[in-house]
Amino acid sequence: MSTENFILDLIDRQLRCIWEGDAETYRATTAEDVSFYEWYISPQRIDGLDFHLREIRVHASALADSDDNRIEHEILQPRVQIYDNTAIATYTLFVRTVSGGRVIHKSHHETRVFHNFGTADEPHWLLVHCHKSPIVTPNSMAVVR
Questions:
Q1: What DSSP line would sit under 8-34, residue for residue?
Q2: Average pLDDT across the chain, whole number
């Protein structure tokens, strides 16, 4: 598997573990000192893995309340750039939420930066930064600060 495809697979695994409440997989694929800009959560940078582990547990709890809840995602227009031990992935994240017999669609742009803490022979890629940017539409204006 190429490094580019490995990174895209890693992103898919990270997103699925968020929706499924799998904090251990997220911990195993994310650096302790990860930084995030998540415009819909906070206008400030969010530092460290602990915040996201708590969020994943909240997701799991919320989704467990009903057999009707489901989150799916698609990664649109992905691009992965590799520079030695750093990989930069950019894409549009499309999220489909099924809850209470309704389907809600949301999307935003993401940039994820990964670093290989291993070697070329035994790579160990971890997420070190993520930046999420809104796609401003009439429906998203209510949450854009």
A1: HHHHHHHHHHHHHT-HHHHHHTEEEEE
A2: 90
